[in-house]
Amino acid sequence: MKKIILALFCASTISLTSNAQLPIALVAGVNMANATQKMAGSSISSSSITGFHIGLMTELSFGEKLSLMPGLIYSIKGSKVSDFNVTAKINYLEIPINVAYKLPVNGLFVYAGPYLGYALSGTTEVSGSSTSMTFGNDSSNNAKKMDVGLNIGVGYNLPMHLFVRAQYGMGLSNLQPKGDADNMIKNKVFGISVGYYFRR
Fold first, then answer.
1. Which of 19, 79, 83, 121 has its C-alpha lying 20 to 30 A from 51's C-alpha?
2. Contacts 24+ apart (CB under 8 A), 51-55
């Protein structure tokens, strides 16, 4: 799955550099981030934390209705587990590759597609004391570095090259090192963003 996403992103990058007229957009917004968590088969109740995302995207059109929307996004995810008084925040660099479809309503579009995330850094806060997270596949680490998931969203193109989007991202990777079906952490994020096309 990771290799497929990387191959698609490389293909999109080649297309972008070979066609100087492709649109480039800056997108930024707010994340309401949470996680699906289990420990020893029991679900752990968690609440959302507020983060943000910012990055660049482009759009490769295939006819009037369909387009490919790859990007490079910095995104803050995590969750808060009140029972253990623990808040986790992870800073990701993500490559989303969404396929968009323009609806009959003028300006409205829907999109969906996979994303590949790479953890740059993270912190855990326990009772007000913050420590840096470690990443890897060993049980001594806090979380795995790589995250793969799916995005689904809806957007609306505004005048003056602006657009707004609402998106839900569902993590498919178990981020728990040495995790299994009974011991897991999976990201889930709802985001709202505003974007501006420098060229369209």
1. 83
2. 51/75, 51/76, 51/77, 51/78, 51/89, 52/28, 52/76, 53/27, 53/28, 53/29, 53/191, 53/193, 54/26, 54/27, 54/28, 54/29, 55/26, 55/27, 55/28, 55/94
